[in-house]
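User: Okay, second chain of the day. Same drill as before: sequence in, structure tokens out.
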Amino acid sequence: EQALFRELYEEVGLREKQVNVVARTERWLHYDLPEMYLQRIRRRGNRKFRGQKQIWFLLRLLTDDSKVCLDISSQPEFDQWRWTDWRVAVREIVEFKRNVYRSAFSELRVHLTRNTVPRRP
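Assistant: Same drill. Structure tokens below.
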């Protein structure tokens, strides 16, 4: 879980005490990059890279969502964020990641309760 909290801080500026881990996927979820992306990566010298494997976590936000800060890192990974339904996220993510999103949400949604879903204004 230390990698989770490092990534959480680097990507969205939240600390461990600002979230509660509700659940995680039981297994690694994998995706392979399409060839057009792999060609760019290979030109930079990384010949072995194929894609990514991930463990997904369901977190409960314990602080106000105004604490989310996307520019903590010198090279931010995101330029905006929003609360959304998981089905919208699956529909809007790039095609080659869709199955990973479906698998993660399928496994984690059983842990969703009124206490894990943020209230909408």
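The helical segments are 2-12, 35-43, 86-92, 98-108.

User: Thanks, on to the next one.
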